[in-house]
TrEMBL record:
Organism placement in taxonomy: Bacteria, Pseudomonadati, Bacteroidota, Bacteroidia, Bacteroidales
Keyword vocabulary terms for this entry: ATP-binding, Carbohydrate metabolism, Cytoplasm, Galactose metabolism, Kinase, Magnesium, Metal-binding, Nucleotide-binding, Transferase
InterPro entries the UniProt entry points to: Galactokinase, Galactokinase_CS, GalKase_N, GHMP_kinase_C_dom, GHMP_kinase_C_sf, GHMP_kinase_N_dom, GHMP_knse_ATP-bd_CS, Mevalonate/galactokinase
Protein name, per record: Galactokinase
KW Manganese (keyword) present: no
Annotated organism of origin: Paraprevotella clara YIT 11840
Keyword set includes Kinase: yes
Every GHMP kinase N-terminal domain range: 93-181
NCBIfam families: gal_kin
GO molecular function: ATP binding; galactokinase activity; metal ion binding
Pfam families: GalKase_gal_bdg (PF10509), GHMP_kinases_C (PF08544), GHMP_kinases_N (PF00288)
Length: 386
């Protein structure tokens, strides 16, 4: 069921003083192609989805934030002036956004808030970015006399991940959540911040997420490890080619040149990123021509790279990708950071019903549980609802 304003408002009234505040929404996102390229200054190609986060907020006349997570049934209160902040990870997203907005000169005051989301957790649709974005947008709207631009709001969310949650993420998720536009995907240059909307209404095809409902517990921080691999290789290439500041600037020839100066693992990860940079641009050209066969081919190439070179797949995701190939699906790949979550699939209308049936039965037969099918509708970005 789709989350509504009433779902959030009824809980806000129940948990606070019986009055109402302002309601804001920010979406999760899909990414057609361009995975793990954002922190390498490359290109990404996301779109906002209809699922997201809804938050009700009302100033409370104190320096404290009183926050209730409807989904987790958890309440946290913290002071805006406490540099350490709350321990609960979900509350640290809100705390981090408040602190980053204050650092930008926004005179944030204490408030009461309740929020909920219908972005599937662990599906690679960036529920965390939706949470950051809804509060960044709301605080800008409520307290900002000189309004901050949308890209800066996205950077507030990114800084929150870095400083308060320990995830050294790129800018794509927050960018897509803030800037989304119904019926359009966006090509973002993660170095310059320049972006372009691409109308996306693929006649004869559907975008379908297949959620494995698996999120593998991982030792350490594989996301940050991969980012370090990319930075290591870029630094070595830079010694030979000073113009190379990140893997965005490198090509296969440069990578081969330093093959003996980097680890085999770092080499393979860099190889994936350089290839993915080219695939994003190829998909943009193909979309402008209505060439969805090429789009699909590049999606399969990306999955191979993520699985075999970047090593962020898992047996469940590879199995879903294999089924898509066997059933003649135009394109399929891991979406998101990996190690679980979803595949994103470009499925022709005539194959859709059979694909859904087959993928559910085969996956359940092998792994003992049905995957969840999520039909993608491209929606709007951060906004005030009432």
């Amino acid at each position: 069921m789709k989350l509504t304003i009433d779902d959030v408002r009824s809980r806000f009234i129940e948990h606070f003083d019986g009055t109402t505040g302002s309601v804001y929404a920010s979406p999760g996102r899909i990414n057609l192609i361009g995975e793990h390229t954002d922190y390498n200054d490359g290109f990404v190609f996301p779109g906002a989805v209809q699922q997201g986060m809804i938050a009700e907020i009302k100033v409370n006349g104190t320096r404290n934030v009183r926050a209730y997570s409807i989904d987790l049934k958890d309440y946290v209160e913290f002071s805006l002036d406490d540099e350490k902040g709350p321990k609960a990870s979900w509350a640290r997203y809100i705390f981090g956004v408040c602190r980053e907005m204050m650092a930008l000169g926004i005179p944030v005051e204490g408030f009461n808030t309740a929020f909920a989301g219908d972005v599937p957790l662990g599906a690679g649709m960036s529920s965390s970015a939706a949470l950051e974005s809804v509060y960044a947008f709301a605080l800008n709207d409520m307290f900002g006399e000189n309004k901050i631009d949308k890209m800066t709001l996205a950077k507030v969310g990114q800084a929150t991940e870095h400083k308060y949650l320990g995830c050294n993420c790129g800018i794509m998720d927050q960018f897509a959540s803030v800037h989304g536009k119904a019926g359009s995907l966006m090509r973002l240059d993660c170095r310059s911040g320049e972006f372009e909307y691409f109308p996306f209404d693929p006649k004869g095809y559907k975008l379908v997420l297949v959620n494995s409902c698996v999120k593998h517990e991982l030792v350490g921080s594989p996301y940050n490890d991969r980012r370090r691999s990319c930075e290591n290789v870029a630094a070595v290439i830079n010694k030979h080619h000073p113009e190379v500041k990140s893997l965005r600037d490198a090509d296969y020839a440069m990578l081969d040149e330093v093959k003996n100066e980097v680890s085999a693992e770092d080499f393979m990860r860099a190889k994936y990123v350089i290839g993915e940079k080219e695939r994003v641009l190829a998909v943009c050209d193909a979309l402008e021509k209505g060439d969805y066969e090429t789009v699909g081919q590049k999606m399969y190439e990306t999955h191979y790279g993520l699985s075999k070179e970047y090593e962020v797949s898992c047996p469940e995701l590879d199995f879903l990708n294999d089924i898509a190939k066997e059933e003649g699906v135009t394109g399929s790949r891991i979406m998101g950071g990996g190690f679980g979550g979803c595949t994103i699939n470009l499925v022709s209308d005539e194959l859709y019903d059979n694909f859904v049936k087959v993928v559910k039965s085969k996956f359940k037969e092998k792994f003992g549980k049905e995957p969840v099918i999520i039909d993608v509708v491209i929606g709007d970005g951060s906004r005030k609802l009432c």
